[in-house]
Amino acid sequence: MKRYLSIGIAVVAISLAANTPVEARGKTEVVTKPEVSQPLMLAADRPSSGYITPFELVTSAYQGQYRDHSIPGFGSFIYEIGTGKITAKDLVKAAIDSKRLPPQAISDLSYMNYVSLQLRSMRF
Question: What global pTM score does this model have?
Fold first, then answer.
């Protein structure tokens, strides 16, 4: 019993010591955050001239903005990505037809790869 009491007192003493605030004295220094003129963007989210980002493209497709071009929205969109019925090429064609992307986007391999990457991230 004495052993448990001494262990308990030691635990309480250590926890009090660890949680007691300490006031710092001496020279204080103010550290400021460097200013950033533009937010950092990943290469996948950096649009080329006139392009919407691959993330914006996939998000807008998920929200049903390309239903007029045979791209379903929401759960059906995710299901058809998983079954392979919707590809990056299909999605980019729909965006070109709806004037959200310029026609040369379909031949931009880097852009197409980023769209494919975004679609893969939507699969379950």
Answer: 0.60
